[in-house]
Amino acid sequence: MEFRDLKAQYKNYQKAIDAAIQNVLENGNFINGKEVKLLEERLAHYVGVKNCISCANGTDAMTLLMMAWGIKKGDAVFVPDFTFFSTGEIVSFNGATPIFVDVDKDTFNIDTEKLDQVIQKTIEENKYTPKVIIPVDLFGLPANHYEIDRIAKKYNLLVLEDAAQGFGGSINGKMACSFGTAATTSFFPAKPLGCYGDGGAIFTNDDQLAKLLNSYKEHGKGEHKYDNARIGVNSRLDTIQAAILNVKLTGFIEHELEDVNKVYEWYTERLNGIVKTPFIPNGYQSSFAQYTIQLHSNEERDLLKTKLKEQGIPTMIYYLKPMHKQEAFKSIDFHDEDFKVTDVLCNTVLSLPIHPYLNKDMVHTICNSIVDVLLR
Ligand SMILES: *Cc1c(COP(=O)(O)O)cnc(C)c1O
Fold this sequence. Notes:
The chain has helices spanning 6-27, 34-47, 58-68, 86-93, 112-125, 145-155, 207-216, 239-271, 298-310, 340-348, 360-375; strands at 51-55, 75-80, 97-101, 129-133, 158-162, 170-171, 174-175, 182-186, 200-204, 284-285, 291-294, 349-352. By secondary structure, it is an alpha/beta fold. It folds into 2 domains: 6-247, Aspartate Aminotransferase, domain 2 (3-Layer(aba) Sandwich), CATH 3.40.640.10; 255-375, Aspartate Aminotransferase, domain 1 (Alpha-Beta Complex). The strands form 3 sheets. It has a 7-stranded mixed beta sheet with strand order 1-9-8-5-4-2-3, with helices on both faces. The chain has a 3-stranded antiparallel beta sheet with strand order 7-6-10, with no helix packed on it. InterPro entries: DegT/StrS_aminotransferase, PyrdxlP-dep_Trfase, PyrdxlP-dep_Trfase_major, PyrdxlP-dep_Trfase_small.
């Protein structure tokens, strides 16, 4: 059994994907081919924003925003403590300081009450200047973006929606990647919309910002190719990856998002009351980058993981370590008691196999094994 079955997806679209790649090979426009522009237009339309700027990966997408916003040493950027390393890394990479915030015990997303308190405290301490909030749409579920917007306005902060895992999610029909000042996503193969290598994109309604990002991602280009207005980077999405994504985006819209939500329902019907199943607030839709359950204790979680592995069922622990405990951030002063929820989650969560090509029988097999281990 696969944790995320990319081979089943490829089989389903093999003809179209092979043809799309072949077409790029024959045309020879490997950089900035027409497939890239087409993908950007389709993505912008799908999420409902004016501009989509593709780039080399989800980490670069966030880094480019930090560059365009001029985030630097002395600035504070608020990041959830429970996320993939990249969300905090890009802050430090740009010289600023990530201030981690504990998460909500049910949604696993940034706790907005604590966020407000931490911002106030940062202002009072006057060591760093608050600049940006980076809410993460963890495991596919959008963060509480309306509340985050309100807080951002109150303190005059920018918002970067990290939707690397969130593409396809929504709140009352408003799509992930359309929240905040700008949003980013990742096309890493295992993400909800993945390519066959690295890829990423930035979304914004701000035309000026979009222009600046398009410059930064290609060596700070000015009016033409060999005119350089600023110091930038080289971060483009390959034409081949864009061609693959154009096929996959169609499948994602036509059935994959719906199918992965069916898998969520099958799991939850069987596991509800046995383990803590994912909480999806009213009006929210998740794209289920992960289906993450919570066990009663660290021992129970580790036992379940081992027993499932013995039966050929792969599981993952996202995430074993809170951000504030990462060696890379040891120079920043944090207090463990500020991250109680994240600490519990790191010890008790387990992510089960989920993808649009998982059928009901397989879900039942997995659930039966879980029930066997836990209720024996
Ligand atoms: C995957 C991921 C990223 C980084 O994306 P890459 O394309 O791998 O650079 C950033 N944030 C979160 C929450 C992610 O899951």
